[in-house]
Give the backbone structure.
Amino acid sequence: MTAAAAATSPHAWLQAQARWNRTEIAFWLATLLPFWLFPDYLVLASQIAITALFALSLDLILGYAGIVSLGHAAFFGLGAYTAGLAAKYGWGEPLTGLMLGALAAGIVGYAASFIIARFRHLALIMITLGMGLLLAELANSLHWLTGGTDGLQGVKMWPIFNKFRFDLYGTTAYSYSLIVLFLCFLVARRIINSPFGLSLRGIRENPLRMPALGASSRAHLRKIYTISAVLAGIAGALLAQTTETVSLEVLGFQRSADVLVILILGGAGRLYGGLVGAIIFMVARDQFSGNTPQFWYFWIGALLIAVVMFLPNGILGGLAKLSSAWRSRA
Amino acid sequence: MIAPVIGVLFDGFAYGMLLFLLSVGLSVTLGMMNFVNLAHCAFAMLGGYVTVTLMNRLGWPFFASLPFAFLLAALVSVVFERTLYRRLYRASELDQVLLTIGLAFVSVAAAAYVYGTVQQPVQMPSYLRGSVTVLGVSFGVYRLFLIGTALAITLLLVGALEYTRFGAQVRAAVDNQRMARGLGINVEGAFAFTFALGSGLAGLGGGLAIDIVGLDPSFAFTYLIYVLIVVSVGGLGSIGGSFAAATLIGISDVAGKYYVPELGAFLIYLVMIVLLMWRPAGLFGRR
């Protein structure tokens, strides 16, 4: 791939990257299969779509811009609480609720991005971790607003377009989450396959050289961090709307760690990494965790160690390596 | 009026000393190899469980089980260092974070499997219970003992680092690893030893922590956050920095929970973020 790309101009390379290939189309068609194959698992499917969107938002900053975040659940939780509170206090319209969630996460993300863009390495990890914990503590202490550890009760959603009611089987929830995921994916794909996306990868590889080339790295980092916060906020709002409740867990460290695991498992720095990771992680958790969730983390931990040791680019990276090895032999 | 303030300061200082024991090893190894070890508190938890097992199942006295908490944590950590950690010294911090979070997850699940998720009860010897009252302020005996132990260990560590040949090698490796290698110092060996020592101290801290904060499988993550705060605020590779930061965090946490309980741990995180924004390399950090 790289040898061929070096010969053509950057624009031609980007265009080639942006073309839809058959695997991608097949992937998105396959996301419709649960409607017919597993109609009993549509609630799980909608959770997967939401988690995939959250992982995609982390991929934008971690996989492409190299910002390691241990507190990304902050934006997920902000979106969830905003949408949940809007619905609880009389505005249960889903689409505007989604936008409110995105807006709240975006504003806080934009404010935080000024801090984030200045730091790297351990300080960055600690600051993202600290901001996540700070928000979780805040939600816990604002008991009168968020319900604290009891969770936010009484979220009532109106039907989408006054027509599609959220049902018990998750048909509406899955359709809704899937459409939102697909639209957000298109946005992310467009961003990544643009000159801006390329310069993000440049910043990831060498944050000092990019400003020397004339691309302001802090401004770029601020932009992508805000975009990522917006996407995470949308994912959180989706969860609040489809489950009609918000628990403190949406802001927890566990959620930040889980999404990191999902992304690494699937393959960071690849658009489909978070999506594939979310499918595998959520299905495995549904099948294996049962009533002993703490043992489930044994396997997650073992898996993380194995991925870091033997599969540095995740499952998709491993597959890409296999397929290129197979092609060069043929 | 004054008595409660002194009481809070005393409890905070004792808590800070506990945090210092738990975090000093991580500070030195992070400074030396730049290795982000999020499994550090898993070794502390191991020390805690060793203490509990020896005391409750085998009936050992508290003071006899503490050295074993140290030794076993040190031993297990050096096994992991030789088999897993050393492969990632040159990897990105993300890979290091992932590997060590993975280890911490495994340790939490293993602890839950063996001991269950309940708090481990432990009966301290009678001479460490109760409190002494001086000028109307009561000081817990166990906390006095904790402070004494931590101060003794600090003196030992500082002495060893400042006045021995090995200490000079460790300081050289923290300051400039490449130069130290160039001078023929066995950095890997010194690191493995320091790593074992640091994890051992964490294990000892884990054993000492049971009476104050309790012990359950979530220990590896709950105190990891405090330890990371101490390390990043104090500055990497600086024992004095860790000491100052641990005292600061311990006192502000206890004071915060005493005077404004509704804020919970909020204050600590805020203190950390503000301090890090002011000095990203920590209060006493050089880089």
